Task: inverse folding
């Protein structure tokens, strides 16, 4: 599965658009992490426990999105976006969405479109 | 008696926040500058379309995130600033730290997978609420983009 946040995938042609796919998680920070974080709030700096939690929930949300895409029979997701919102002081939502598409294989694309000559710099002082 | 003790404790917290927090921040900025030097030659843009010259490259998503907390002193000075208005400098540096950290982690992921170009970079920001008050306890920032190999 190819996942990008651009509208197209370089060198590939979009054969079919399957539609919007999405995944989300609402995560709560557990008490131990909250206590450590509130201590950290005195002196500032990175909240490592929360960063780990954010990474985990990001993976979870993306996995759900990719599972949806797979179910639709897509082989790529383009224009992926993330959105986060804090609901209460204890929980935050992470939401991830994109467009599931079917793209061709690179060999197919090369055969279908004529090769582009390599770009040359303009002869400015010729 | 209680109020005097409370005030002393409050001042102590502010002093600890000021001294340790400022030290940590300065150290973080130094580390950020060191790590950013490695990515000087990277091409990073927030343009949406990938130009034709990169057509035969492999594209994949790279993500970096960071959660950074304010210190007690900054919360205090920001509260003072709220009285008079104007730029809240202490939170400006907080946002800058979080953003630079997140994009560095994104670039490190790109580099570890052999890419030196990141297209269509986007940021996503959330402020986390502190435990006791309505003031932000910190910010979480996600930076993501399409790496081209």
Result:
């Amino acid at each position: 599965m190819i996942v990008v946040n651009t509208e197209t995938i370089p060198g590939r042609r979009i054969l079919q658009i399957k539609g919007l796919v999405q995944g989300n998680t609402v995560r709560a920070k557990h008490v131990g992490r909250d206590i450590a974080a509130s201590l950290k709030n005195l002196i500032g700096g990175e909240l490592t426990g929360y960063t780990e939690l954010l990474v985990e929930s990001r993976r979870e949300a993306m996995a759900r999105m990719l599972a949806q895409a797979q179910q639709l029979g897509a082989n790529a997701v383009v224009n992926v976006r993330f959105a986060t919102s804090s609901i209460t002081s204890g929980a935050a939502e992470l939401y991830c969405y994109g467009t599931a598409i079917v793209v061709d294989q690179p060999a197919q694309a090369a055969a279908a479109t004529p090769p582009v000559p390599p770009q040359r710099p303009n002869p400015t002082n010729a | 008696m209680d109020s005097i003790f409370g005030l002393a404790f409050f001042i102590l917290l502010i002093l600890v926040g000021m001294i340790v927090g400022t030290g940590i921040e300065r150290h973080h900025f130094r580390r950020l500058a060191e790590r950013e030097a490695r990515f000087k030659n990277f091409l990073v843009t927030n343009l949406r379309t990938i130009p034709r010259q990169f057509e035969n490259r492999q594209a994949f998503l790279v993500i970096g995130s960071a959660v950074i907390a304010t210190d007690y002193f900054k919360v205090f000075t920001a509260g003072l600033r709220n009285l008079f208005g104007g730029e809240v400098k202490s939170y400006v540096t907080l946002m800058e730290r979080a953003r630079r950290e997140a994009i560095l982690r994104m670039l490190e992921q790109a580099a570890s997978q052999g890419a030196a170009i990141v297209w269509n970079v986007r940021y996503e920001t959330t402020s986390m609420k502190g435990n006791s008050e309505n003031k932000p306890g910190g910010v979480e920032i996600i930076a993501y983009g399409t790496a081209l190999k």
Notes: The domain at 2-112 of chain A is CATH 3.30.110.70 (Translation Initiation Factor IF3). Chain A is about 35% helix and 35% strand.
